[in-house]
Design a protein that fits this description.
The chain is of the alpha/beta class. It has five helices and five strands. Helix 2 runs parallel beside helix 3 and helix 3 packs parallel to helix 4. The chain is globular.
């Protein structure tokens, strides 16, 4: 039996990973916050060392983009320090780490879709904390992959689709920004440092 540690199992991405159909020889372990404090590096190291895991998937994140501007320490604790500790623990256990990041690591003013090796240039605390987490993972563990996502949608928790459905039932007219674009990209980010390039 291969055990996979999934952090943030109560969130949208982690929750969907926990509920999906996995092969019979895979066991998903998704500890609640009370079982694994992601702001405690020593707790992370001990949990991974004792778990006998075959891999770690880290979708856990502080995702309150606006609140992050006034909760800097909390954002960096979960989005930067926790990934660093997970990278250390994964390296010590010699297991792969998949780290989920965000398009907020980019400036957001490009005229074309961002490539995975585009320059990281966040403009807010949330993006900066996620960028720091990427660097910690990329430089801290060679057996790591970073997956950037956006527009997360699930049946659980709040998200854009559920908000629009609620507004549509309550209002005759809705005003929505029309200058944001998303796209699916399946190419992983190299564990080596990405080259810096202009993105548009």
């Amino acid at each position: 039996m291969r055990r996979i540690l999934v952090t943030g199992g109560e969130g949208q991405v982690g929750g969907e990973l926990v509920r999906r159909a996995w092969p019979d020889d895979v066991e998903i372990t998704a500890p609640k916050r009370a079982e694994l404090d992601l702001t405690d590096a020593s707790a992370i190291g001990a949990y991974v060392a004792a778990g006998g895991f075959a891999a770690i998937v880290n979708p856990a994140a502080y995702t309150a983009v606006d609140k992050a501007e006034s909760e800097v320490a909390q954002a960096f604790a979960v989005n930067a320090l926790a990934p660093a500790a997970l990278a250390d623990a994964a390296r010590a256990a010699d297991i792969p780490l998949v780290h989920v990041s965000t398009d907020y690591v980019f400036r957001g003013d490009a005229s074309a879709p961002y490539e995975t090796d585009a320059e990281i240039d966040p403009i807010g605390i949330y993006g900066a904390s996620k960028a720091a987490g990427e660097f910690a993972v990329r430089l801290g563990h060679k057996r790591s992959v970073i997956v950037r996502t956006a527009w997360v949608v699930s049946a659980r928790r709040a998200n854009f689709v559920k908000t629009m459905l609620r507004y549509g039932a309550e209002r005759d007219l809705m005003r929505v920004v029309a200058d944001q674009h998303g796209a699916r990209r399946l190419r992983p980010i190299s564990p080596r440092r990405s080259r810096r390039s202009r993105s548009g």
